[in-house]
Amino acid sequence: MSGNVASGTVNLSDLEERLKKLESNFQSKKRPTNKLGLNFGAQPNHPTVPAQRPQMSLNFQSSAPASTLNSMSQQMAQPRKKQISFSIPPPEKSHESERVNQRLQEVYQQTGKLRIGGKVLQAHVHEFDNLGQIGSGTCGQVYKMRYKPISYVMAVKQMNRSGNNDEQKRILMDLDIVQKSHDCPTIVTCFGTFVTESSVWICMELMETCFEKLKKRVQGPMPEVILGKLTVAVVQALNYLKEQHNVIHRDVKPSNILVGNNGVIKLCDFGISGRLVDSQAKTRAAGCTAYMAPERISPDPNHPNYDIRADVWSLGISLVELATGRFPYSDCKTDFEMLTKILEQEPPSLPPDKGFSIHFQKFVTACCTKDYRNRPKYRELLADEFVKRFIFANVDVTKWLGQILYPPTGTTAFPIARTASGNVVKPTTTDPFAFAAEITQAQFAKHARTRSLDFKDFNRKPGTK
Fold first, then answer.
1. For a tag on the chain, would you pick the N or C end, based on fewer CB atoms within 10 A?
2. Among this protein's residues, is 335 annotated catalytic?
3. Greatest Cα-to-Cα distance within the chain, rounded to the nearest angstrom
4. Where is this region: Disordered (predicted)?
5. How far apart are CA 312 and CA 347, in angstroms?
């Protein structure tokens, strides 16, 4: 039976020969070329090493029919798909980033000049003595420093240059506003700037303290006359930013309202101020959450942007806090709880039974209107009766400040005030609200020669004539 195969069995010799031919054809097939000329990760100037094929094992003991083996060979002959991986190039510098860097270069060219008392002085950072940290701002720390050549003491805000584009924009905004606002008496004065490879210095006039620290010092309500002068200063500063530079502050709060030892109140910290486009701001992630207006927390889908009235809300919340000695949302344990109350509860207001004038109560209520469409803008606030009264009011802020910061020994915990005859106003009650009202009355009695400061108007109860 040599060379014969029984019927129904596979001729192994023929099968082996056919498989060898298929193997030869399979090996001779070229891999598909890259017609697009793309380089998928291959190193330049290095020949591509073909991948080693797995060894094919043939089992001739199998009794599978030839058709099945042919099908298997055809599947193996199909070219395998390539794993393609694209390397993403680094993002190109945006136009905004280039503009920020260009502006920084312009500032760098103007560095090293101090304008003090009408004179321009060439200065260097090594000519300053650090007298200690006095505060911190949005993107830097504030130090009390002495310029040694003329022994001039000033406040210097130092901001690190991290290379982050958002930080760069904050620094530029702060520089921009303080440099351009030299003609506004209610914005801190800038003497000059220094730009180094690692930091930016802004040299400003030294103020005595901020109202956040004063609130902690007083530990109770502040007199209405003091808050009246604060209101005038803040509204005038905000209106100046809007009208002259088309800017919204976005971080109005007691810690950014300063007072000098001469009694002048000024606004500061413009790192997160924003440019207005068509009188509206678009950036939402800016400012302190506690003083943020409802329309910034939960914007109207039809009108997602906000305008200067967001700062009016922040002013109203600050006035409630300073007038009562307590932040209106201080009982909230989390930011989420506080934001929920801002959106869902009635807005804060001044208590009607604590001696506040009807004009002050109305002003705060208008500022804290939840619907921004019904909230007044700066022109309306400047025309408000409460603001008009204090624009020209002769309030001795300097003496009040001195009594708070440097109280005479043996005095009470309450801040003191003096009558027109110079007598000390001593508290007749342990109620801090009542004593704050006594200070207000003493201040107005001291300057009763001005008709518009008649205290009767301020002490009038709501609904009376």
1. C
2. no
3. 144
4. 23-99
5. 13
Name which residue leads in pLDDT, 82 or 209: 209
d(CA 230, CA 264): 9
188 and 242 in a common domain: no
- Both 320 and 427 in one domain: the answer is yes
Residue 128 has pLDDT above 80, yes or no: yes
Range of the domain at 165: 110-204
The CATH number given to whatever domain includes residue 176 is 3.30.200.20
The structure tokens 């200063």 sit at: 233
Decide: helix, strand or coil at residue 365: helix
| Span 25-72, pLDDT tens digits | 766 655 554 444 444 444 444 444 454 554 544 444 444 455 554 555
- Assigned token pair, 180: 């351009």
| Distance in angstroms (rounded) separating the CA atoms of residues 233 and 463 | 29
Q: For residue 3, what is the DSSP state?
A: T
Q: 66-77 and 12-28 are packed helices; what angle lies between their axes, rounded to 10 degrees? A: 10
d(CA 309, CA 248): 9
The catalytic position among 251, 269, 311, 396 is 251
Considering only CA atoms, which of 160, 439, 179, 206 is closest in space to residue 323?
Answer: 439
Query: What are the tokens at 354?
Result: 């604590």
H helix or E strand, kind and range, residue 154? strand 152-160
